[in-house]
Amino acid sequence: MRNLKQIAAFSLAAVLSFSGPALNVWAGSPEFSRTQEEWMKLRDNVVEYEELADLIHEYNVTVQKNQLDLNNKKKDDLITRDQYAQYYRDAADDARSAISGDDPVTDAKSAVSAAKADKAADDNTEDLEVYRLTYDQTEANLAAQAQTLMITYFQQKNQLESSQLELERSEADYQTTLAKQSAGMVTQADILAARETIQNTSVSMEKLRASVEETRQKFCVMLGWNYNDSPEIRDLPAADSGHIQSLNPEADKEKALQNNYTININKRKLENASADITKETLKRTISSNEQSISTALVKAYQAVLQANAAYEQAVTEYNLESKTMDVIRQKYQLGMVSSLVYQKQENTYKTKSIAVKSAELTLFSSVQTYDNTVNGLASAGG
């Protein structure tokens, strides 16, 4: 469970009404900012894809530290561009006041420090809004990383399931090889090779299990749980075919540009800039940002199209295999095929089923990347 820190903020009755770990850690927002139902959902011991952004906002350590930093900057009156510039000018004055004439080396270092601070004041483009936008970008990226980790978690579980089927096939092949040995149809080398395949697959499965657990732990910690907590991780929602059909990079381009955090940060810096060279540099940077975002949006859309085609192909192959499975099942029930033939067909059928799930996860991930690109997270190249 998360560290017990927030119980004092609630009555005993409220404490008894919750059982999840989210109650036991400071939330980033005050209690009145959400309804009781919303807090209950965040404080249960369940993780759902739709609540990832809210969990990051309330319980991620980095987000909380950034919010504290913003509050401290307000307290220190580091709000406007001029106030930030004055901070550097004060540092320059302090450095100059340290020049005593007693030690040429020390005086030279102080003079250099003063000059650097003066230049930083002249070149400064920071203000509280720049920091707020930067921290908002960090939070949005963390939410996207949580989405990716959740998708990866289920992808790895699919890989583990696929590896289990591979192990079953290897064991069946080994038994077949043993049966052939008694008839003199295989050599001892064939037996050893079949056994080695089983061992290699088993080793691979153990590595996959470790990867699944590592991903789960990273995911939990991002959302405020301890690494050894075990919240229930609910299944991802299905890919929305209607939403996929509505994607249009040309139509979404303007929204992607307006929402992009990097562009908005650079535009704010441009507003704050006083030096002409700084202004020109930022203008060129923003123009480059816009080109990069347009390219990223098109690439994200193409990835969706490719993932959707792969998903449809996987479904088609699964449907065909399903029909074959029905035929083999009927023949097996009638005693027309052996148990081994039935097991191999069932294994192939399950493999196709897993392939569909994996393809859908890839499609879901590609759509989420596109949506995140539109919502401000496109790589803008600086």
Provide a descriptive summary of the structure in words.
Helix 7 packs antiparallel against helix 8 (about 190-220) and helix 7 (about 130-180) packs antiparallel against helix 11. The chain has about 375 residues and is mostly helical. Mean pLDDT is about 90; it is low at about 1-25. It has a two-stranded parallel ribbon with strand order 1-2. The longest helix is centred in the C-terminal third of the chain and has 58 residues, at about 275-335. The protein is built from 13 helices and 2 strands. The protein has 3 domains: about 45-75 and about 130-235, no CATH class; about 75-115; about 240-380, Outer membrane efflux proteins (OEP). Keywords: Signal. It comes from Lacrimispora amygdalina. GO terms for molecular function: efflux transmembrane transporter activity. This is TolC family protein.
